[in-house]
Amino acid sequence: MDALAKGVKGQTNGGRNRVTGPFGNTFSAHVSQTDDQSDEPQRKRRFIGSAFGRIRGEQRDMSYDDYEEPVRKPTIQSSVIATTREVKPRTQALEEQKNDKKSLARNKRMFGMILGTLQKFQNEESTRKDTQSQKRVEIEKKLDEKAEEERTQLRKERRELFLVRREKEAQIRCIEHKMQRVEIA
Predict the structure, then answer these.
(1) Pairing of β 16-20 and β 26-30
(2) Which among 25, 57, 116, 155 is least buried, having the fewest CB atoms inside 10 angstroms?
(3) At a CB cut-off of 8 Å and minimum separation 6, what does 65 contact?
(4) What are the phi and psi torsion angles at 85 (to 5°)?
(5) Partners of 10 in the beta sheet?
(6) DSSP 8-class letter at 44
(7) Residue 22 burial (10 A CB sphere; 0-12, 13-18, 19+)
(8) What would you measure as the largest C-alpha separation in the chain, in angstroms?
(9) Where does the record place the region Disordered (predicted)?
(10) Three-state DSSP class for 135?
């Protein structure tokens, strides 16, 4: 029961002890019935935190008998010391670059590579736009063809309906003419 004497809250439950650790963790431990003043040294009991505690880097490997605050090392602030550089005027730097043939050749190569890359991207963009415009034209052409087909289909149906109507009207006139003959006779 030495753990309880050190300031850890606990409840006994028939030989079992409910112990709350300094971090709020509760554990169930078996309590021995022997005196605290026996000649045997007490075993240190260790608890291991959760897996997430190990991931976060928390150290939870403490004994029940030793509930002291962990020793914190003092932190040291880092400082960056800026060295002074001699800054040349722009005109002087340009003059030095003009005289250096090696750097001038390198600069020309780099500029040529950049221009080549830019032209390559421009060509790809123009071909992409061309293919997109061709696809757009093809789609518009198909839509126009469908619209024209629908119009011709509607005209054809209208003509057929008109012819059917004329035939029906002619039949009606014929029947009316026959009825007039029957009434006269």
Answers:
(1) antiparallel
(2) 57
(3) 2, 3, 6, 42, 44, 45
(4) -115, 150
(5) 19
(6) P
(7) middle
(8) 147
(9) 1-79
(10) helix
Residue 47 neighbours by CB under 8 Å, 6+ apart: 21, 25, 27, 60, 62, 64
Task: Name the nearest CA neighbour of 29 among 14, 39, 41, 40.
Answer: 14
Q: Which amino acid makes up residue 68? A: E
Evaluate if pTM is beyond 0.70. no
Six token digits for residue 93:
């730097």
Residue type, 126: S
Which helix (H) or strand (E) segment holds residue 17: the answer is strand 16-20
Does residue 16 contact residue 31 with C-beta atoms inside 8 Å?
A: yes
Judge whether 59 and 70 are in contact, CB under 8 Å: yes
